[in-house]
Each structure stands twice: as structure tokens, then as C-alpha cells.
Amino acid sequence: xxxxxxxxxxxxxxxxxxxxxxxxxxxxxxxxxxxxxxxxxxxxxxxxxxxxxxxxxxxxxxxxxxxxxxxxxxxxxxxxxxxxxxxxxxxxxxxxxxxxxxxxxxxxxxxxxxxxxxxxxxxxxxxxxxxxxxxxxxxxxxxxxxxxxxxxxxxxxxxxxxxxxxxxxxxxxxxxxxxxxxxxxxxxxxxxxxxxxxxxxxxxxxxxxxxxxxxxxxxxxxxxxxxxxxxxxxxxxxxxxxxxxxxxxxxxxxxxxxxxxxxxxxxxxxxxxxxxxxxxxxxxxxxxxx
Amino acid sequence: xxxxxxxxxxxxxxxxxxxxxxxxxxxxxxxxxxxxxxxxxxxxxxxxxxxxxxxxxxxxxxxxxxxxxxxxxxxxxxxxxxxxxxxxxxxxxxxxxxxxxxxxxxxxxxxxxxxxxxxxxxxxxxxxxxxxxxxxxxxxxxxxxxxxxxxxxxxxxxxxxxxxxxxxxxxxxxxxxxxxxxxxxxxxxxxxxxxxxxxxxxxxxxxxxxxxxxxxxxxxxxxxxxxxxxxxxxxxxxxxxxxxxxxxxxxxxxxxxxxxxxxxxxxxxxxxxxxxxxxxxxxxxxxxxxxxxxxxxxxxxxxxxxxxxxxxxxxxxxxxxxxxxxxxxxxxxxxxxxxxxxxxxxxxxxxxxxxxxxxxxxxx
Lengths: 290, 364
Description:
The structure holds two protein chains of two kinds. By secondary structure, chain A is mainly alpha-helical. Chain A has helices at 5-32, 39-56, 60-82, 91-113, 138-160, 162-172, 174-179, 184-209, 214-219, 221-230, 236-252, 266-278; strands at 128-131, 134-137. Chain A has a single domain, classed as ABC transporter involved in vitamin B12 uptake, BtuC, CATH 1.10.3470. The longest helix of chain A has 28 residues, at 5-32. Chain B is an all-alpha fold. Chain B has one domain. Helices cover 75% and strands 0% of the residues of chain B. In chain B, α5 (49-75) packs parallel to α9. The two termini of chain B are 17 Å apart. Mean pLDDT of chain B is 79; it is low at 1-9. Chains A and B meet through α4, α9, α10 and α12 of A and α8, α11, α13, α15 and α17 of B.
């Protein structure tokens, strides 16, 4: 039995970031019905900008600011100017359209920054504490802590503030919400802004914890979607738990030689089982759109 | 009311009805026939080996795209796992090709059938789902396949079930005796792909096609018309899987081996996106998709343009197709040819697809 405690730490941190990505996806999906495939790409542009700034000036706080700002802006641009044109289409068409945005961003990222291997290392990496011979860097603690705090914070905020109510109303019925005087574009734009902000944060954390590569970060959205599916694309806390569990299982499998190469299959297996479980009562015929 | 009767117009347009109208019965099969003749004679005669390989790969991917277009265009089902099925077909073909002495064509058929069966099994839970959850579960399946095949790799003549060579030289799968050269193999691929398109066309014109058209309108109307929804939906999944499996087998046969890292879930998403761009209602659509996916990057490469520009073009094309042209490039092509022939009595393909979308949204 290998010592798995270092892998538990890694798993908790990466899982927390999956969870945070999943929360960003769920917030947006609940309000606008858009499952954002561009989420990872938006985060990767932010992370690459941060890398650039660290190369030029080495001012970490500026890098964070610009990265998160850029991701929020990109999300805003899509959400405000492109997404409304598809507002009345099937949710799957809306999801596929975000893929178009993802491809554009991915193309720009790989064209401008090429695909050289890069790594971001924040100063937080050098600070850390040791628990039971395992060293935990501050970045990992921040990743885990921010995921838990942000998720619970957003959940409380959306359950109590008026904007949360408006978002739930929109998710229920867009036309009726508009009739009741909910400013639809404004509420939707706010959801895109929140989601873009979270994409920026998770992009930066993943660039530090995993790898700074446009393709890797762009398609990191797939395990994040698995986390969101565990939360039924609805529950923020469910997404948090799902993301952390997925990250944990994946990391714990690492030291076991025979299953190690297959450990990344875990998010997909978990998500598939959850989808099948959720759909178990649906009738074969007369299935409605999602 | 008139619109609702005409919603399957884009489907009818697929054989360029308007030209058929003018030139008579022969007109409908003229464009595909010319295309096949050009592909069989001019391309192998005048292309370099680089381009023949690019066109072979394009033809292979148009077969996979045909399956995606079938599911999305006929039934409104989104499958984001077709490239995984392509990989499965390739795996079976390599395994049987190395392990048995069966002729390549038989091995290819078995590869297609196995991928079709996988599609069938995957299709059973999918019967309960539509829309987003179906897209997600197929995506998760593709993700799972990516991880597993990345670990196991593709058979290369070794022992055991996985057929992997642990140490020593990896062997390539020999091409069939009748298609040894690149040009001959390309012709063979064109024949198989043509048969695939005809097979789908046969479905479209017979009972399954009518059943699919009803299911696409709504499950309720199909049910009330006595259509066996379970059977025909599963059959569509199996058919799409079969086409992808054959495509994978053709790919394996062309190169002789496959790379375990070459079938990521992202490629399945990309295939779906480009199928929408190509157009799902016309037979030209999947062909355009294949060319976009495999010949267009080669074109950029030969012009010394950064290959990543392809991503940007694909992304913009996808947004443009979804927002303004639901019938894709093939629909725009059909509209252009209609304008050329000055026959504006029917709604254009994109208008018809558009009204179809609007109507379906009204129902929700």
C-alpha cells in the first residue's frame, strides 16, 4: 500500500478547482440555459495573459488582475453580443455555439503564444505548511479554500438576493419573466460576468496546479462539466462535492501502477452514472428536451 | 400552416430537387456522379502523395460526419461521441487484421458492425434523453474512450487480447492486395464512402426515413402514427456507429496503425461542430465537413499559414452557421445554385430550416 496522503492533498486542490469551474458553469446554466463549452478557453486566455505579464514585469498582483479582468470581459462580450441571438434555440444549440467561441479563443491563444510548454508559478507556491510529513503549498490551500468559500458565498447570495430570484425566474421561463418586468438582458449579462470571473480564477489556479497549455485548459471544461452534472446542472453544493470527489478519486489512483493510466476516466464514469440515475424515471417515448 | 407542411423541405432539397425539376430525373444524381468521377480519376492522377492522403482522410471523416448529420439532421439528436466510435472501429480492424487471415473487406465490415453494436448499446439509455443530457452522456463516453485507448494503445501485431507489442518492432497492418498504392487505396475509400452515402439514402427514402421524419417532429406524433420509436431511434444510433466504425477501419487500413492519443473527446466535439458547419440536411454537407476537417488544414499548411488559423475560421464558421444559416454551407450552396437557376418558387434551404427551428421553439 503506497503512501497516498500527498495524493489526497493534490486531489483535494485540483478537485476544488474542478468544482469551482463547475460552479461557474452551473451559475450560467441556471440563469441563461447555456452550458458554456468556452469556459475553459476563456480561462486559458486569462492565464496566458498572466504568464505574459509575469514574463515582462513580474508583478503578480497585476497578473491576477489582468487575467481575471480579461476572462470576465471575454465572457461579457459573448454573453452580451452573441448569446442573445440564440436565446430562443434548443439548449444544445446554445451549448454548441459556445464551442465556436471556444475554438476562436483557442486558435488565437495557440497562434499568438504557440504551444511551447509553459508554467506559471505563483509566490504562494513557495509558502506552505507541513502536516504529517506532507508539505501543502499555500496555492493548494487557497484553491481549496476559495472553492468552498466562493461556492457557499454564491449559493447564499443567489438564494437571498433579488438577482438570484431573477435568475431562477429566467431559468424557469424567459418570456414570463420578461412580462413580469425582470430586465432579462441585464440579469443574463450579470450571470455571464460572474461566470467569466470564475473562469478567470480557475484558469489561473489550473495553470499553476496542472499545466499552462491552451488545449489542456480549454478541454479542462469536460471534467468540470462532469462536476456540474453531479450537481444536476442545478445545485451549487452538489457541484462542489462532485468536483472534489472527482479530483480526489483521480489523484488517489495515481500511485497504483495498474489503474494509474486510466485514472482520468473517473470523471466520465461518475458523470455517466449520475446522468443515467437522474434519467431513470423518464419514459422511453415522449422524452422532452432535457 | 403551410410552413408546417413544408418543414421537411431541406431534406427534400438534399437531392437538389430544383435542378432535378429542370433537367429531369437524371439531374438529381448528376452532381454526386460528377463528384465521384472526379474523385476516382482526376484527384489520384494529378495530386501529390501529400494531397492524396489528405483527401483520403477527408473522405473517411465525411463518412463519420454522415452519421452525425443523420442523427442531428433527421432526428435532432446530438452525439458528441462519434470519433470514439471511429476509434473503436479502427481498433477492431487492427486487432482482427493482425490476428486473423480474413480479407480486409470482411474485417472492415466487422469493425463497422462492432462499432454499430456499441452505438446500439449506447443508444438504449439515450432513448430516454434528448438535447443536452444526450450530448453530455455521449461526450462522457468519448472522454472515457479517450482515456482507455490512451492507456491500452491500438493493436500492432502483439500477443494477447490487446495485441500490443511490449518490446521489439511494431508491425503495420498490410493494405488489401487490390489497394496497395496511395491512389488505389484512395479509390477504394471513395467506393466505400459512396456505398455508405447510398446506404443512408436508401434509409431516407424508405420506411426508416419516414419514421425518423415523424420522430423529429415530435415523439408524440410519431407514437400516434404507430411508429416504433424505440426501434427506429436505436437503429439510427446503430447506423451512425456503423458508419463511424467503417471510417475508423478505413483510417486504420490507410496508415496501417493508429495512435492511442489520436482520438480525444475534443475531436468528437470538433466533428459535430464541423458537421453543423458543413450542413446536416444535404448530402454535400458531410463531404464539406470532411474537407474542412482534413483538407483545409493541409491547404493552410501548404500555404505556410499558421495551422491555428483553422481553429479561428472553424469557430467563426460555427457561430455564423448556428446564428444565421442552420442548413450550413451545403444549404448556402444549394441556395446559391437555386438563385443561379432563377427558381425561387420554394423557400430556400436556410429559410426552411430557420422556420423549422422557430416552429419547434414555439412548441416548447
